[in-house]
Amino acid sequence: MTAASEVLSSRLGGLSPTVALVLGSGLGGLVDEVEDAVRIPYGELPGFPHSGVSGHAGQLVAGRLAGKPVIVLAGRAHYYEHGDAAAMRPALEALAGVGVGKLILTNAAGSVDAQMPPGSVMLLTDHINFAGANPLIGEQTDRRFVGLSEAYDADMRAAFERAAQDTGTPLHQGVYMWFSGPSFETPAEIRMARVMGANAVGMSTVPEVILARFLGMRVAACSVITNLAAGMSAGELSHQETKDMAPIGGARLATVLKRVLSAGMLED
Ligand code: HPA
Question: Residue 148, Cα to own-chain centre: how many angstroms?
Answer without folding.
Answer: 17
